Amino acid sequence: MTAPDSWVPFRLPLQLSLYLLVIMTLSIFLHLSNWFPTARPRRPSLNATKGSPATPPTTTPATERGMWTVNSIGRLGNQMGEYATLYALAKMNGRQAYILPQMHQQLAPVFRITLPVISNDVVRSIPWRNYGLHDWMLEEYRHIKGKYVRLTGYPCSWTFYHHLRQEILQEFSFHDHIKEEANRYLAGMRGQRRNVTYVGVHVRRGDYVRVMPQIWKGVVADKAYLEKAMGYFRAKYQEPVFVVTSNGMEWCRENINTSRGDVYFSGDGKESSPGRDFALLAHCNHTIMTIGTFGIWVGYLVGGETIYLANYTLPDSPFLRVFKPKAAFLPEWIGIDADLSPLRSGT
Predict the structure, then answer these.
(1) Where exactly are the transmembrane stretches of this chain (predicted)?
(2) What domains appear along the chain, each with residue ranges and CATH number?
């Protein structure tokens, strides 16, 4: 059935009206798009974290103040030194500090660190200026030039960050579950003692047993040193308890006198996962260290009395060109000189 002829005159004006409506709609849309432009997609950004062991979230940071980072090399003690030095020098130079994912993986499971993490993609895209550091603070480090600086070396000296001590201690505060585990372990050693004083003892051996005499003209701690150090605390405190951790525990069991019943061999001695040993020592009242950055950081965090092995290299040791004892050990710490006779006699 065909439409009546009377519809034909009405159809033409209707089509014309629809055509004009489409044109007006497109015109309005184009004007609005100019007034409110669509946001452009952001470039790949940094990973930022507040110290959680989990994978840090992706954010877009403000980089007007520059981006500084530090190499992530060595084990726990070295990583802590690199982190604290970056934290202090970046703040000193008015720059924003970021850590590498490798450093986050080592430190974040143990400590409540707060520096944001820079992703590997961003690391590769930035023209870094590598800036080598000595193992002690110099005046020139207060005026480091460059907006994108990557600090290098093995810095571990209180001279970099001691003016920010409380902030550094906060950065290296432990997660609650680690604190609780360490305190439970120490409580189990108390026994019937009423006035117990916990002394953490870290005996660094491992590769140092070979490296120190063969390369650095130095020695590691011996039996006599440990007896002197422990004797100091036995004479000063009524009921000391010595908590021994080491990466050479067999040597410790053979050379540390346990006849008094106040020595406990603890920890697993695994250099690949030293967080548990470190936390145990850091929750003691005082520290006996031998050599190495691990023991230095234990003493720094504990804050009690610290005894360290002093003068453990020959005067002509090349080690003294890269390491300054006065910049490593706090002035109030107590040094006991090492026995260098094995070096001099060639044994």
Answers:
(1) 16-36
(2) 67-168 (no CATH), 175-343 (3.40.50)
Average pLDDT of the residues in 329-335: 98
Lookup result for tokens 């050693």: 189
DSSP 324: -
Query: Which string of b and e fits 227-257 if b means at least 16 CB within 10 Å?
Result: eebbebbbeebeebbbbbbbbbbeebeeebe
Q: Compute the distance between CA of residue 155 and CA of residue 161 in angstroms, rounded to an integer.
A: 11
- Which element (helix H / strand E) includes 248? none
Provide the 3-class DSSP secondary structure of residue 166. Answer: helix
Q: Quote the CA–CA distance of 327 and 334 in Å, as a whole number.
A: 14
> What confidence tens digit (pLDDT) does each residue in 249-286 have?
999 999 999 999 999 999 766 665 689 999 999 999 99
Nearest to 111 by CA among 70, 77, 74: 77
d(CA 295, CA 100): 24
State pTM to two decimals.
0.82
The rounded distance, in Å, linking the Cα atoms of 233 and 158 is 25
Residue 243's nearest CA partner among 282, 276, 198, 283 is 198
Beta-carbon-side half-sphere exposure of residue 341 (alpha carbons within 13 Å): 3
- Output Rg (C-alpha) for the chain, integer angstroms: 31
Per-residue confidence (pLDDT) for residue 78, from 0 to 100: 97
Please report, rounded to a whole number, the percentage of residues in the chain having pLDDT higher than 70.
79
Q: What is the pLDDT of the chain when averaged over all its residues?
A: 86
Q: If we measure between CA atoms, which residue out of 245, 101, 86 comes closest to residue 171? A: 86
pLDDT at 192 over 70: yes
- Start-to-end Cα distance in the chain: 119
Helix/strand/coil for 297: helix
Q: Which residue has the tokens 């309005």?
A: 28
Exposed, middle or buried: residue 142 (CB in 10 Å: 0-12, 13-18, 19+)? exposed
User: Which residue type is seen at 332?
Assistant: E
Confidence (pLDDT) at 239: 97
- At 346 the pLDDT is 76
DSSP assigned state of 337: E
